Amino acid sequence: MTPQGPRPLPAGNPARGRGELAVARKPYELIPFPQQPPKLEHPAGHAKFHPDKLHGTLFLTLTVQTALHISTGHLALGSDVGVNGIRVLKTMTTTPDGRLKIQGSSLKGAIRAMYEAITNSTLAVITSRYKDRIPPERQPCRQKERLCPASRVFGALNWQGLVEFRDAIATGTGSGVGSLPPLYRPRPDQCKAYFKKENGKVIGRKFYYTHKKALQGHQKGTPTQQAAQNTVFKTQIHFKNLTPAELGTLFTVLGQDPNHPMLLKVGGGKPVGLGSLQVTLDKIEQPRNLKERYSRYDPPEADTLEGGRLQAFVQEQIRAAQGYILPEQLKRLAAILSPTALREPPTGVY
């Protein structure tokens, strides 16, 4: 199938005719699966640190570009979470001292989806309802000895993976409040664009565009605790036994490739512009001597990469990922999640 570029924004809400609802463009794009089946290989394993692989910790700063809400599923009095003027609202997870938190699992899911899309990988999770409509080669990996690129790094059934995500904690206390507009669940059964005409199989992975702002529902929406624009979070990703190509792909997904900058989209309200995060890689710590690191009570200091050394290392790994990353899929994903080509959120039916 020939991939199609991102669709242009509508000039407004184009009405179909008098008396009909105005329908906005869909705020998402489907990135098609590659035609070739994924190459399934044995993962590196956890039994030892391989001397020819890469290990360490990424230190990241996440800056909120459009308001962020990751729901706990619980309601609370506004006064109980430090939000005055709102009687009841949907809450986010916070630390005991009142700082907002992005769960590591939420970050991992968002990053894995991007990693899957730009490598020749299977899906991680599917629902039984649409299992028959998923191409056989895109069904989740079930044998830990034969894993796709994303499953080797992020995990699969009976396989823990090679990366570990910490929760992201806000650097300051307090939170904002917003009103999430009413949103419907995805309805692939009612949208033919999700499936190929010739065989009825799913076309690819779905990603929402990055937007200039987060649309708020005002009186008609659901009050939600939110991380306001420019809120800063800090987090870490631990990695071990990664190849340069695997680590370079992770850097690319985190928006560190200057030729393909990207934002992360995390949490609820993505169709109306919520959840865009800018990632900054502050430093990398790598153990200088693995034997000493794990055989002494007072482990030696790690080798810390910052500034020019950090940038040189990152670009070296990104170059190693060429040929591993699917260029067309990367081009399309970067266009959807661009930090500069931002779109207006849809205000009508879409």
Using only C-alpha atoms, the radius of gyration works out to: 21 Å
Low-confidence stretches: 1-19
Rough shape? globular
Helical amount: 10-25%
Mean pLDDT: 89
Structure annotation, total helices: 6
- The fraction of residues in strands falls at 15-25%
Distance between the termini: 25 Å
H/E element string? EEEEEHHEEEEEEHEEHEHH
Largest sheet: number of strands, sense, barrel closure: 8 strands, antiparallel
Number of separate strands: 14
Structural class, by secondary structure, is alpha+beta
Task: Walk me through this protein's architecture.
By secondary structure, the protein is of the alpha+beta class. It is built from six helices and 14 strands. Strands 2, 5, 6, 7, 11, 12, 13 and 14 form an eight-stranded antiparallel sheet that branches. Strands 1-9 form a two-stranded antiparallel ribbon. Strands 3-4 form a two-stranded antiparallel ribbon. The two termini are 25 Å apart. The relative contact order is 0.23.
Describe the protein's topology:
Layout: E1 28-32, E2 54-64, E3 71-77, E4 88-92, E5 101-102, H1 104-118, H2 149-154, E6 163-165, E7 168-170, E8 176-180, E9 204-208, E10 222-226, E11 232-242, H3 244-253, E12 264-265, E13 276-286, H4 290-293, E14 303-305, H5 307-320, H6 327-336
Antiparallel strand pairs: 1-9, 2-11, 2-13, 3-4, 5-7, 6-11, 7-11, 8-10, 12-13, 13-14
